[in-house]
Amino acid sequence: MRSLFTVGAFALTLAAIAPATAAEYKIGDITIVDPWARATPGTPRNGGAYLTIKGGASDDQLTSVESDVAKRTELHGHKNENGVMKMHRVDGVEIPASGMAMLKPGGYHIMLMKLKHALKEGESFPVTLHFANAGKVTVEVKILGVGAMGAGKDATHGGHGKMKMKMKN
Ligand SMILES: [Cu+2]
């Protein structure tokens, strides 16, 4: 009995360590892992969504994104201009063969411009990703906590441009 109990306790420990948000989507030989967004407090203007893309046998490119939660959904990147990180629209994100592209706070991200409603922690929404070669796939974006930072001083981007952010609360 004792050994059974030990095994059970170990399994519970593993379950507690595993990320609660693990999700995978496939299109062709491309894999999309753990799409997530940050909850937007108060009256939201913009939001950001993030995910990891694992490349397939050949190079591909994420060329556009669509969602119903925002008036416009764009691909953005960040650039350091004299020590200030600024975001800007990009035409695509390269997905290297057998490599990885990470869309994350402070880097490439899916920009949700003019949100139609607040993003509430615990809910989710679909985003469609278009790849140059692999085609398109719709993924479910999980809404996580607001994170350590409050609403933004950057009025044009509504608190979404903060550089440091933890994936989990
Ligand atoms: Cu942006």
Q: Which key phrases capture this entry?
A:
Immunoglobulin-like; eleven-stranded mixed β-sheet; disordered C terminus; binds copper (II) ion; 169 residues; mainly beta; 47% strand
Fold blueprint:
Layout (H helix, E strand, L loop, with lengths): L1 H16 L6 E4 L2 E9 L8 E8 L5 E8 L2 E12 L2 E6 L3 E3 L4 E4 L5 E7 L8 E8 L3 E10 L25
Parallel strand pairs: 2-11
Antiparallel strand pairs: 1-2, 2-3, 3-8, 3-9, 4-7, 4-10, 5-6, 5-9, 10-11
How would you characterize this protein structure?
The longest helix is centred in the N-terminal third of the chain and has 16 residues, at 2-17. The protein has one domain: Sandwich (Immunoglobulin-like). The chain is built from 1 helix and 11 strands, in the order H-E-E-E-E-E-E-E-E-E-E-E. The chain is mainly β and 169 residues long. Helix content is 9%, strand content 47%. A hairpin with a 3-residue loop joins strand 10 and strand 11 (135-144). Bound molecules: copper (II) ion (CU). Copper (II) ion is lined by residues 76, 87, 109, 111, 157.
Which class of secondary structure composition applies to the elements? Answer: mainly beta
* Known CATH architecture: Sandwich
Q: What number of structural domains do the residues give?
A: 1
Classified by CATH, the class is Mainly Beta
Number of strands: 11
Q: CATH-wise, what's the superfamily?
A: PCu(A)C copper chaperone
Largest sheet: 11 strands, mixed
Which small-molecule ligands are present, each listed once? copper (II) ion
The fraction of residues assigned to DSSP E strands is over 45%
Shape field: globular
**Helical coverage, percent range:** under 10%
Order of helices and strands: HEEEEEEEEEEE
What is the fold-level CATH name, i.e. the topology? Immunoglobulin-like
